[in-house]
Amino acid sequence: MVGKIETKRLNAYFGDVHAIKDVDLSIPSNKITAIIGPSGCGKSTLIRCMNRMHEVVRGTRVTGKVIIDGRDIYAPGTDSVLVRRKVGMVFQKPNPFPTMNIYDNVVAGLRLNGERDWKILDATAERSLKLAALWDEVKDHLDASGVSISGGQQQRLCIARALAVEPEVLLLDEPCSALDPIATAKIEDLLFDLKRSYTLVIVTHNMQQAARIADYTAFMYLGELVEFGETTKIFENPEKELTEKYITGRFG
Predict the structure, then answer these.
(1) What is the 3-state secondary structure (H, E, C) of 33-54?
(2) Which of 48, 101, 201, 222 could form a disulfide with 53 if both were Cys (CB 3.0 to 4.6 A apart)?
(3) What is the pTM of this model?
(4) Count of CB atoms within 10 A of residue 12's CB?
(5) Tens digit of each residue's pLDDT (9 = 90 or more) over 87-115
(6) How far apart are the C-alpha atoms of 122 and 102, rounded to whole Å?
């Protein structure tokens, strides 16, 4: 199976620290892939390599390949801005732009790309907020500050902002860790709907969450990919003893 995203002998470094070690992974299209593992195992670093955000930190480097739709995003001459437009990202803590209202938060990426047609901006804002299951809650106060709504709504606003530039892949780095169970359930329902149109990769510490929503799961440990496969197999019949120990709570 050729994946939407493929990593080949992917290595990532923070200075002398070898954070990701020879990771070979094939992430399928229009599925949710969860990346699990103990703190510090390289989960977030791995997904930051998938849209070239790792390199924005001083002293970092990447070797190996990340291939999206058959093209290596680290190939010479590749525009990292275009990569990040195709591969959106949502972070652990909701981060709406505090000086912008809800509407401007959603269309910020389009405006940055030079779009000025208000009809296109209006249509994109509505479409993206509907995709993020937020439109009905905010449509009557789009001029309110992006930080005036609840934490769960802010996270869905950030998802709408990421979707507005029409990516093909959405990376989510523990998007529910700062949310209560009700807001978490809304995000999970949203992700389940979004996979019909997008390829989703989610980093999570919550194994129950991975089991609930992910089609595939990758287990990372000390920078290495220990095991990858269909979520039901990883949780019910893992091949590696290390995976079983982590899943059953015997370490990590």
Answers:
(1) EEEECCCCCCHHHHHHHCCCCH
(2) 48
(3) 0.94
(4) 23
(5) 999 999 999 999 999 999 999 999 998 99
(6) 12
